[in-house]
Amino acid sequence: MKKMWKRMLLPLVLLLLMIPLSSCGKSVADRDVLAHAKATNTIVWGVKADTRLFGLMNIKTGKIEGFDVDMAKAVTKQILGKKGNAQLVQVTSDTRVPMIKGGNVDAVIATMTITPERQKILDFSDVYFNAGQSLLVKKGSPIKTVKDLKKGTKVIGVQGSNSVDNVKKAAPETTVLQLSDYAQAFTALKSGQGDALTTDNGILYGMSEQDNRYVVTGGTFTKEPYGIAINKGQRPFVKAVNKAIKQLKQNGTYAKLIKKWFGDVPGFSLKEVE
Amino acid sequence: MWSILTNNWNALLSGLGYTLAASILALIGSLIIGTLFALMEISPFKALRIIGRIYVEVVRNIPLLVITLAFYVIVPRFIIKIDGFTAGTIGLLIYTSAFIAETVRAGIEAVPSGQMEGARSIGMSYTQAMRQIIFPQAFKIVIPPLGNQFINLVKNSSVLAFVAGFDLMYQGKLIAATTFSTFDTYLIVGVLYLILTMPLSYLMRYLEKKWVTA
């Protein structure tokens, strides 16, 4: 028996030795993003590929398309000129922060809400889209607003998104099931794994547009300003992105992109999101 | 690192509990179902052999995630409402049972055929010979590979995270997503899995020493 314990100890010790590793290794994430982007004429963007209207993989062309993607391309062109190259990298709600921190992407434009917690570890651009959290339910569901989420109801959310914390605050008695992406969350709702799906209304409208047996209900119960996320210590790049957003709003490109993606969504107004 | 462990102790502990529960249920279930299909595969009746063969080949050649998602997404829509934990555990059970069936079948077939012939020639029935002569010998042979399957099963239970089954991996993912310290969180999760699998590993080794060499 004694020998057995000794043998079990070794792997554990080896694992514990790995702990100091977690605090080193920063070289790529520390370089000046703006200077590097200008040198290579490329900005690497993290975008979603599972979110209708914002960033969705088009299966026919193999390209990611959506409002976030078009914004990323437009901002790139504003910063680097007409020939500027926007390289798109797919991220999910739970990989987008580590990807910025690790220097895999220069910036993330992926339906990401500006929150104080995130601002502690990341910088954000100015708001480029004002969303709000809402609920998606099956047509005719007894759940009309967030107040109807009582004990025994199940709400589906997505891991790593702040909408989960919001719904826990607004409806503390409901059970929250967290799935890994929006496509899976919507599938789970369709399979009856939950009574409602919660996230930002922009994303929910995209789901409702895809399958009209499901409707967005109850209005918004939070304010979710979307920003472009950039690693800490990249002030010049943040300034350049903010300037680009301002220019896009002034020259009408922004309104054109909003109209392209959200023109058909019922009850959508540009004033609300700008 | 320590703050992650202390702040999320309850979540991690409940995750460990769900992982343990899913693993034990799936282990017992897959051992029973796996042995059943192994017996079908070596049965003297052709129909049973074919059914067993089809089950094993289909199940072991589909990714665990696909099986689990089928139980999470398709079964509740058309047959019966089951939640993520149930779907994950059933998926794990079915998937592992195919591998256990193959392991047990190999073990039974490794017992020299003279054993069965001898048993039958002294008047034992097929079932009697199976139970009293073949099984005790096959059992010793399959212990080491069976241990492999059990350890794989515990690790594979992380599939529950994908269907919101509240297991250790699920909690780990949530903690990583809210604290943003991905590396530390998964390191802790890794150690917790070790705490589950290492004793199992040594138990199997102990059984091997005790029974196989005896």
From TrEMBL, chain A:
GO molecular function: ligand-gated monoatomic ion channel activity
Boundaries of every Ionotropic glutamate receptor C-terminal domain copy: 42-264
Residues of the Solute-binding protein family 3/N-terminal domain: 42-265
Gene Ontology cellular-component annotations: extracellular region; membrane; outer membrane-bounded periplasmic space
A biological-process GO annotation: amino acid transport
SUPFAM superfamilies listed in its UniProt record: Periplasmic binding protein-like II
Keywords annotated in UniProt: Signal, Transport
Signal peptide: 1-25
Similarity remark: Belongs to the bacterial solute-binding protein 3 family.
UniProt name for this protein: Glutamate ABC transporter substrate-binding protein
Species for this entry: Lacticaseibacillus chiayiensis
UniProt lineage: Bacteria, Bacillati, Bacillota, Bacilli, Lactobacillales
UniProtKB/TrEMBL annotation, chain B:
GO biological process, alphabetically ordered: amino acid transport
Domain ABC transmembrane type-1 stretches: 16-204
Gene Ontology CC: ATP-binding cassette (ABC) transporter complex
Assigned keywords, A-Z: Amino-acid transport, Cell membrane, Membrane, Transmembrane, Transmembrane helix, Transport
InterPro entries registered for this protein in UniProt: AA_ABC_transptr_permease_3TM, ArtM/GltK/GlnP/TcyL/YhdX-like, MetI-like, MetI-like_sf
Domain of life: Bacteria
Membrane-crossing residue ranges in chain numbering: 20-40, 61-79
CDD domains referenced in this protein's UniProt entry, alphabetically: TM_PBP2
Membrane topology, record value: Multi-pass membrane protein
Localisation: Cell membrane
Gene3D superfamilies per the UniProt record, alphabetical: MetI-like (1.10.3720.10)
Any GO molecular function: transmembrane transporter activity
Membership in a protein family: Belongs to the binding-protein-dependent transport system permease family.
NCBIfam families documented for this protein: HEQRo_perm_3TM
UniProt protein name: Amino acid ABC transporter permease
Upper lineage: Bacteria, Bacillati, Bacillota, Bacilli, Lactobacillales
